[in-house]
TrEMBL record:
Protein name: D-amino-acid oxidase
InterPro entries reported in the protein's UniProt record: DAO, FAD-dep_OxRdtase, FAD/NAD-bd_sf, TAT_signal, TAT_signal_bac_arc
GO molecular function term, any single one: FAD binding
Entry keywords, A to Z: FAD, Flavoprotein, Oxidoreductase
Superkingdom: Bacteria
The protein's required cofactors: FAD
Residue stretches making up the FAD dependent oxidoreductase domain: 130-396
């Protein structure tokens, strides 16, 4: 197998040219991505980069539109007050709700599973049989934690991976992405959120190094040219209406600080480059592992659609944990759920490409199961109350062109 072209770890002129040659071989077209806009620390305060902190070799992404192997659309199940996590009696059943996690469902899932498992086990009063409805991020993790607490779990769901909406996520650690509105969340929400985020984070570390690398830490680069004050988020070109809560400062100790890279220490052409590391979820393999683990622990999956809560009466289990995501809006006639549409174009994975990049509204995350290109010109408000799940090819290609534009700037900079 030939050597994978990379931008080298230490930016010597030779390595720079090596990267340039790799780029020159591909007629660049771009892709996009979404995700949290990282806070930028004070610009220009970073010390020179020590040798042991040189950036990892970066495989250039082959930004050709014919390398898109699918375009997916997902609706974030957003609730202004935050996810619904409470127990309610419906007839002789106890229903424990666990839905409405916006853009944070994967990230917060283990913490939420912990909370609803306590509610469900208390309601079960010693009975072991517990139903979970839904096999997305929240259903799979709730089933796992219920099993660890001693329950015999049956998961009922209309769809399983890869057909759930959760299978169409970016796959990043984004625990406060579109999780609530600051103006609508209750006074104790931030404290509860922090506890769930910390629990989730700890669970995720237990998947590191397991076969198939379902979870891994990867470097993330933020690139920008405009002046920004320390801690300022990237301004959207479109005015933002909704005051989404940003709670990440409460758990800033969990991930490495974002550092502004000294000028010339990376191959990127922008005025500012910042780097941090974060968790990537290789959702295809990760969902498969969660499903297998549930089966191995004696769980059962049943294909079933519920049309109203009255259908729950036919279930043998007395305690039902409901993890139906955006489907909850129709199932419970719950208008508190607002869809926030998001689209991803998937590029063919490339050997050695495991990093993320954020530039001009494009969020690229190179995962093992696909290179995620999420583009959002409209900032966090984009897709608000939009139920259209049809892919928009032209928009996907616009995102790709953002990366192509970055690469052509790089190529110009690398010319002798
Ligand atoms: C573009 C995009 C990128 C994202 N990126 C990230 C990210 O990087 N990190 C992150 O943490 N989050 C991310 N999210 C958010 C995340 O995808 C969601 O929060 C999460 O998928 C919600 O999971 P869920 O299990 O609640 O819902 P779903 O995945 O929708 O699962 C619901 C389950 O319930 C079943 N169901 C629904 N209704 C019924 C019914 N009536 N009867 C029977 N079964 C039913 C479904 O079949 C399915 O099995 C992203 C979202 C979008 C749109």
């Amino acid at each position: 197998m030939g050597e994978v072209p990379k931008f080298g770890g230490e930016v010597s002129r030779r390595q720079f040219l090596y990267g340039s040659a790799a780029l020159a071989g591909s007629s660049v077209l771009g892709l996009s991505g979404c995700g949290k806009t990282a806070k930028s620390p004070a610009v220009g305060l970073a010390p020179a980069l020590p040798f042991y902190d040189a950036y990892q070799p970066l495989v250039p992404i082959r930004v050709h539109t014919d390398r898109i192997f699918r375009i997916t659309v997902c609706l974030r199940p957003f609730r202004a007050q935050g996810p619904r996590m409470e127990a309610e009696k419906i007839g002789d059943k106890t229903v424990v709700y666990n839905y409405g996690h916006g853009g944070s469902g994967w990230s917060l899932s283990w913490g939420c599973a912990d909370v609803v498992t306590k509610m469900a086990m208390e309601a079960a009063q010693g009975a072991r049989e517990i139903a979970v409805i839904g096999a997305g991020a929240l259903g799979l993790t709730a089933a796992t934690i219920l099993q660890r607490a001693g329950a015999k779990v049956t998961v009922y769901a209309k769809e399983r991976a890869p057909y759930t909406r959760s299978s169409r996520a970016t796959g990043s650690w984004t625990p406060s992405s579109r999780i609530a509105l600051s103006s609508a969340m209750g006074p104790d929400f931030a404290t509860k959120w922090e506890s769930m985020a910390r629990t989730s984070f700890a669970y995720y570390q237990s998947f590191l190094g397991t076969p198939g690398a379902p979870i891994e830490w990867t470097d993330r680069y933020s690139l920008w040219d405009e002046e920004r004050k320390p801690g300022e988020r990237r301004a959207s070109s479109v005015p933002q209406i909704h005051d989404f809560a940003h709670l990440d400062d409460r758990i800033a100790d969990l991930v490495p600080k974002q550092e502004v890279m000294p000028p010339g220490s990376t191959p990127f052409p922008t005025k500012y480059v910042a780097r941090t590391s974060s968790m990537s979820f290789n959702v295809a393999g990760y969902s498969r592992q969660l499903t297998s683990d549930i089966l191995l622990a004696g769980g059962t999956f049943v294909d079933r659609e519920f049309h109203s809560p009255q259908d729950f009466a036919s279930l043998p289990e007395k305690v039902i944990v409901v993890c139906t995501g955006y489907g909850s809006r129709a199932l419970f006639n719950d208008d508190s759920i607002v869809p926030v549409r998001g689209q991803i174009a998937w590029l063919i994975p490339q050997e050695g490409a495991q990093y993320g990049l954020n530039y001009n509204g494009l969020n690229m995350l190179a995962r093992r199961d696909g290179i995620v290109m999420q583009y959002s010109k409209g900032g966090e408000d984009e897709g608000w109350n939009d139920t259209n799940e049809a892919p928009d090819r032209a928009y996907a290609e616009q995102g790709i062109n953002v990366l192509a534009e970055l690469y052509s700037r790089m190529q110009a900079k690398m010319k002798p």
